[in-house]
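User: Teach me something about this protein's shape.
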Amino acid sequence: VAFAGAARTAPYPLEAFTEAGVAAAQLRRFEEAASWFQAGIQAWPQRYEPYYFEGMLLANQNRHNEAVLRFEKALTLPPLNVDVLRALVGSLRRAGRLDEAEAFAIAWEETFPKDADGPAALAHVLMEAGRAQDALAPARKAKAIAPGSNASILEARVLLLLDDAASAIAELHAARAAEPGNAAVYLHLGAALKAAGQIDQAQAALSKAAQLDPRDPEIYSALAQITRFTPGDPLLTAMDRLAGETQRQPGGVPLKLH
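Assistant: First, the predicted structure itself:
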């Protein structure tokens, strides 16, 4: 890329490199995107952004161990940015490096104590490590910092892992009352009701979720596990239509500027 090659001598703003790299990544021109981010590193070696964006590019290609190296470098450069910690913990989780993910999630929680995503990320890491009992406290801390449906869903998921379906159902009923139009609440309520053996109620909750968000394949997958469909059933028709649309859509890289 000619513009990237000029970076060593021309004082172009960093945004010129990061925005060009993001645009190339969104078009799935990965090598070109990497060259823009690398040029940004050469021109602005003391800025965290080009390391972060190159890490995001690698993470979006499932090259998480490589992405971790970029995110760790970005963390050494000021200012400390919560998006870097979020990306680092995410890539460590996806690489199966849960001990390291836990350590950075704790650092995130301590460094940004008003950010509910820190304890929420720690709860996710601990659940994935098979430590549901340990995950309950950070899940509840996240809810105390930022009450809402996402926090309630997280706590309910932990409670289900602890075989406490009744408490999970109560948590999700409260979330449903607060946000009656939230499809994700109904999806997880359906899972909790299923765990409690309340199959009819679970099907009703999942059907409501499908009405609210008819394009979420996870909802239809959950419904298919507990429902006997008949030919011409509207939900079955919606599932078939969504499957066809998904097959026709080209893949993309959800790399965004922050």
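Now, about its shape. The longest helix spans residues 234-248. Residues 1-10 have pLDDT under 50 and may be disordered. If you'd like, I can walk through any region in more detail.
User: That's plenty for now, thanks!
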